[in-house]
Design brief:
heterodimer, A: 303 residues, alpha/beta, Rossmann fold, Alpha-Beta Plaits, 5-stranded antiparallel sheet, 35% helix, B: 262 residues, mainly alpha, 12 helices
Chain lengths: 303, 262
């Protein structure tokens, strides 16, 4: 199968520090791939390797079917990217910054600049010097540069950084429409897990340089842990009653938590036990861990 | 659009919008202005004496107010000042991409990195040429206004070509500045390098090895009289050419091969 992005045993060390170790990931065409990791997990190093900015210490990288390696080879005309915080020439206007990008992308039509300025909502700032832009608008400028040449693959490092809530929604909708309507492949790293949860069709989790999980977003639903949460007026008595009934019960603040399948599949049985013991629950719900909890559990940041 | 022309246009736009262009022009203009001021003072010894320190200093530096002295001072000033000024320009053209964090926007493009580096060098060369022509033309204007004696077309053109030779030799040494601006990711390392080579050039001249040290050669060419000029022969041009080739090749190789992890 032909992948938009394919790494095989990608490793990168800086001196004795191993930033990325044996990362093998595959991104299908038209997919929105969410790349999750804590700070220093190796997200940006991986992205730089995908863009040919660093040479892998071991392994290989293929982007849009081309091997990325020495001699600057790469399908860059079809790739738009944003690496780390967006940068711009501060004394040049937004339009001039994009004009430079347009020329270096080899696009002859000046309309491309105007079009992307309008698309990214930068029209009021088009003639303003980039050095005076807010962080959010600088991020929009970076995204505009990535979208300017209408690439078929977008590699975006934290695309929602610095954007206000409305901007986050706007970018989410833009990326979703590019993927769904134009078949653009999106590879995005993010620390905003809810964004990845809402947008990504496939998720990779990198931790301490290693890809520890790669799965379809749909499958994540199945993999996330469930638990039965109970609130009563007398937590100790309820815990004692349920323990006597054979359940393993944990107390978290004001809530009883039951992780057993038996309790999750038959919460009404648990409710009956408590009602019969004269400790009726005033809240009883089966909760599923969200992506954040799943991520923290996987990375060992929260047990 | 041709990729080189596109990269060249981008570099000229950055230079035009920057205050550095004006700053370097102002910095280089000091040479003919000070030169003209000295001639003005030296033309009238009485006025030179009444002006105190400046007058005394002017007499020590130049001696007589005539066109040969005027051009000699311009050449010496260029040999000294151009090294730092051209290093400043080169450090800015290359180093600003790192200090502004814009370098990452130049690395994964249909325009190859080598073309972008080449465009930067061409802009630097044209910038240096423009400044050189500017100080020569303005120097002629200032000399004419001050009405210093002993002008001749032969002297003017001989001085012009000497100036161009000094600037050419000096400009052939800036690729190392570009290399250090790139490898050092900013301004400090290239400017430190420029100051270091300027100091080493003086030491090399004092020790009698200036003709073998590329960074001493512009100064030796500028000192039109004395034994040092006689030593500037083919071997001096060869070491300068070698420094140019090594600096250019290393800069291109660095941009092509170095990890861009920051």
């Amino acid at each position: 199968m032909d992948f938009a992005i394919e790494t095989s045993g990608l490793s990168k060390s800086f001196g004795h520090v191993c930033a990325v170790e044996s990362v093998s990931l595959r991104v299908r065409h038209g997919e929105i791939y969410g790349f999750l990791g804590l700070n220093g997990a190796g997200k940006t190093t991986t992205i730089r390797a995908l863009l040919g900015m660093i040479r892998p210490s071991a392994g290989s990288v293929k982007v849009l079917g081309q091997v990325i390696g020495p001699n600057e080879r790469g399908p860059w005309r079809q790739v738009g990217y944003l690496v780390e915080s967006p940068a711009a020439y501060p004394e040049l206007s937004v339009r001039e910054n994009l004009e430079i990008a347009r020329c270096l992308q080899g696009i002859s039509s000046r309309n491309a600049t105007t079009h992307v300025i309008e698309r990214m909502g930068l029209t009021p700032y088009a003639d303003r010097k980039a050095g005076t832009l807010s962080t959010g608008n600088l991020q929009r400028l970076g995204l505009a540069r990535a979208l300017l040449h209408e690439p078929t693959l977008l590699i975006l490092d934290e695309p929602a950084n610095g954007l206000d809530p409305a901007g986050v929604v706007e970018i989410r909708e833009l990326l979703a429409s590019l993927a769904h309507e134009k078949g653009v492949t999106v590879f995005m790293s993010s620390h905003i897990l809810t964004e990845v949860n809402r947008l990504a069709t496939r998720i990779g989790i990198i931790h301490k340089g290693r890809l520890i999980e790669e799965l379809d977003a749909e499958k994540l639903e199945e993999m996330r842990l469930q638990r039965l949460e109970i609130k009563t007026r007398n937590l100790e008595a309820a815990q004692s009653t349920l323990t006597q009934a054979g359940f393993t019960v944990k107390i978290s603040d004001t809530t009883l938590i039951l992780n057993e399948e038996r309790a999750i599949n038959a919460p009404e049985e648990v409710a009956s036990i408590l009602v019969n013991a004269g400790i009726p629950p005033f809240r009883l719900a089966v909760e599923q861990e969200d992506l954040e909890e799943h991520f923290l559990r996987l990375t060992g940041e929260r047990k | 659009m041709n990729t080189f022309l596109a990269a060249f246009w981008a570099e000229t736009l950055k230079a035009r919008r920057s205050k550095v262009a004006l700053l370097t022009a102002a910095g280089f203009l000091i040479l003919p202005i000070v030169d003209g001021l000295f001639m003005f003072i030296l033309k009238d010894p009485e006025r030179a004496r009444t002006m105190g320190l400046i007058g005394v200093k002017a007499q020590i530096t130049a001696g007589v107010a005539d066109w040969p002295t005027f051009f000699q001072m311009l050449l010496l000033g260029t040999a000294t000042g151009a090294g730092i000024l051209f290093a400043f320009i080169t450090a800015w053209v290359f180093g600003r991409e790192f200090s502004d964090h814009t370098v990452k926007e130049l690395l994964a493009l249909p325009t190859p990195r080598g073309i972008i580096v080449g465009a930067k060098f061409v802009v630097i060369a044209l910038w240096m040429l423009g400044l050189t022509l500017m100080i020569f033309v303005i120097g002629l204007g200032i000399g004419t206004v001050v009405t210093i004696p002993d002008w001749s077309p032969e002297l003017q053109w001989a001085s012009f070509w000497s100036l161009m030779l000094i600037v050419l030799i000096t400009s052939m040494l800036v690729p190392f500045v570009a290399l250090f601006a790139s490898a050092g990711r900013g301004y400090m390392l290239p400017l430190g390098w420029a100051i270091l080579t300027m100091a080493l050039a003086q030491i090399a001249i004092v020790m009698g090895w200036g003709d073998w040290f590329p960074w001493s050669v512009p100064g030796l060419i500028a000192s039109l009289s004395g034994a040092s000029t006689e030593r500037i022969e083919l071997h001096s041009y060869i070491v300068v050419s070698l420094a140019f080739i090594v600096g250019i090749a290393a800069t291109f190789a660095w941009w092509r091969n170095a990890d861009q992890a920051q």
